[in-house]
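User: For this week's homework, look closely at the record that follows, marking any run of repeated tokens, and judge whether sequence predicts the tokens.
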Amino acid sequence: MENYQAWVQDEIAPFSNLKYKSIEYPTINEKELIIETKAATLNFADLLLSSGMYQSNPKTPFVPGFEVAGTVKECSTDSKFHVGDRVVAATTVFRSGRHGSFGEYCVASENLAYKLPEEISYEVGAAMLMSYLTSDFALHRRAQLKKGEIVLVNAAAGGVGISAVQLAKIQGAKVIAAVGSDKKKKFIDQFEPDLVINYQKENLKDVVEEKFGKRSVNVFYDQVGGEPYEEGIRLLSSEGRALIVGFASGNIPSQLLSYLLVKNISIMGVFMISFENDDKEYLETRMKTIFDRYLSKEIKPVYKTINFDEIVKYLELIGSRKTIGRIVALR
């Protein structure tokens, strides 16, 4: 095969410049897979990638798309996978690869691919992969969350935020869910957080302190950055932990180290992709736990399915903060 069809970014520019067109079929290195895309998840990071603001950017032309569910089309001879296996995977776009999941085929590292149980659909697998694995890694591995601790989750109605709320509750924590509208406030109630705050209308500090007292938050889960980060960090208790998951606001905070020092606060980066080489067995074990929790109905991913030709439209909605849960494009 010489070419395949995909949403292609020909130059670093707004995502609206994506064109559905032909691009050369990929070749793979050892420990990589070519996956036939069945479902691709849209992420805010796709917007950063298109505009050249992501941590690492591929050479143009490239195909965006960080997450995929599909079937293995090609693998190396000594691979633990076989052609035809059902998998979910993080694509190599995470490390400057050019063949993401917004096409007929994509490339993924074996170390970030997981066999998808037959009982779980492609769309559910795609909706769960990075959101639940990221939140599990953040809360379980990085923060080492304990039963009874208080967790503040920013952007709690987004795909990653919803997973953090659910997993924190499973671990016995008390959860404060911060959202940006009354619609999202009503929505997140179904997951039974202990406190829900619409930060567009309510003062986060005042509401949290009225409910739990001053500097009562043990773990702050932040994927926004900017002003929401500055507000959340000052609610942390002594020996509190701030989990830095992302910067959806586009504003990467700078932190006065003196404040962290005198308050005994820890800032923890959360980028589980780096465990591709550092501890891939840990990620594999935790992904199996997530699948098991879904099958036992302990967790409920929230997502909307769209057609592949609607990807640009829904990237725009993600950029304008008008979505709830995850958006999964089906082929």
About this structure: The longest helix spans residues 122-142. The mean pLDDT is 93. The chain has two domains: 3-128+302-330, 147-269.
